[in-house]
Amino acid sequence: KYKSLNLKEDMEKTLPPSILNLLKLIGLYGNELGINVYVVGGFVRDLLLAIRSKLNGAKKSIPYDIDVVVEGDGLLFGKYVAKQLRAKYVEHPKFHTCSIFYRNGENKIIRIDIATARTEYYEEAGELPKVELSTIKKDLYRRDFSINAMAIKLNSGSFGMLLDFFNCRKDLEEGRIRILYPLSFIEDPTRILRAIRFEQRFGFEIEPNTLSKLEEAVANGYLEKVTGMRIREELEKILEEPEPMKAIKRMGKMKIIFHLFERTYYSPTMEKDLEKLFDVKNYFKNNLSNYLNKVRLFHLVLYVLLQYTPEESLKKITARYGLPKDFIKNLMQVKNVYNEISNELKNKEKISKLSYYYEKTNGFQNEQLIFLAVKLPEELLGKYYEYLRKIEKLKLSITGEDLLKKGYEGVQIKTKLEEIKKKLLNGEIQPGEEKYLI
Ligand code: CTP
């Protein structure tokens, strides 16, 4: 038994009209086909949070991804909805689900994922459910956490009815991350990362029993059983959070980092480097934004995390997580440059010239340039940034063609052009004076 709650009015007050109308239409189509239709999961969670924060006068954004579950044939229903809405229909036969892409009045694409209520779930060995569960109830029961296991009925006539079978709303209100069945993390170990992501995103707490099940799954090597791609997806989602450092710290302390990346130890030094990475990235965003072009935060974070990991392990890790072939080589290059620079710190004259940084980093990818900023001693950072600013705008007023005409050939041309570039960087010549050097 659960307290029945109708959210229709709250939804009408909180949701943008385009989403609200769409949900009502989906419910109506359910009636037309004679099947029960629900919106479930993250949408319901975020809607309840939005309703609450609206009561508190705060504004919260409403998600544009809608997860729908039907008690009936999901694909049939999806095709029907797409036809009625004149929306794009995409089927995922492997998962027996489909997606509909609907363009609303404001030209925003709303994605609706549709699934058939699923019933398989796990319980402690030998134990059977005590009562016969209705289909939507079973579907909700096999989900990751209570906060993600509520549904709202959409059918006309019962539109807005909240289905909360497992005291989910109470957990949401009191800020608890709780699994619904004991084998949840074993069945799907990516939930270990999801628990931490939701905990840190909402400032919630993983409740004690869930935490001990989580720790047990980590210690028993269940993270190692998941494909690298699925882990990577969850890690990337963590990095998309507004404050990824919170979750990273938590994963470090709980030895999750170690179980994700063999022979990789999360230490206070590592943590400082990671914090620095986010500061540096922020600096680039505000001052050197061109260097963030094509930069993948996942790679940057892994440069930092894997900087002390032995090479044989790095090979396995890069294969597991689908990192590019040159990842290890690029990492080593930055480490070498950083070591060279550390050994030359006493040579003040040398390190004060902008050409020095050109020599060290010429040919680096943006990710390498940013990682080097993380590793560089604080006193060099100003010069390094000055170099990056200057080299970005630097344009020679002569070309290889000009040198060729003057009789330079082959590698001489490249050498000469670099020499001129360095003189410009150091201010030894002014732009336009290049021609006097050839
Ligand atoms: N889900 C699950 N186990 C997983 C992944 C997802 O039970 N390993 C269920 C949850 O009910 C979740 C829903 O599928 O709410 C949708 O998953 P997803 O889109 O990944 O997450 P959201 O909850 O929508 O979260 P986010 O706000 O991060 O998109």
Question: Can you walk through the features of this model?
Answer:
The protein is α+β, with helices and mostly antiparallel strands. The chain has 4 domains: 1-172, Beta Polymerase, domain 2; 175-260, Hydrophobic Seed Protein (Orthogonal Bundle), CATH 1.10.110.30; 265-392, Methane Monooxygenase Hydroxylase, Chain G, domain 1 (Up-down Bundle), CATH 1.20.58; 400-437, no CATH class. 54% of the residues lie in helices and 10% in strands. It has 22 helices and 10 strands. It has helices at 8-14, 17-33, 42-55, 74-85, 135-141, 168-174, 184-187, 190-202, 208-219, 228-239, 244-253, 256-260, 268-287, 297-305, 311-320, 327-343, 348-351, 354-361, 366-375, 378-393, 400-405, 411-425, and strands at 5-6, 36-40, 65-71, 88-92, 97-103, 109-116, 151-153, 161-163, 176-177, 205-206. The chain has an 8-stranded mixed beta sheet, sandwiched between helices. Strands 9-10 form a two-stranded parallel sheet. The longest helix has 20 residues, at 268-287. It is elongated and about 85 Å long. It binds cytidine-5'-triphosphate. Cytidine-5'-triphosphate binds next to helix 8. Cytidine-5'-triphosphate (CTP) is lined by residues 41-42, 67, 143-144, 148-149, 188, 190-191, 194.
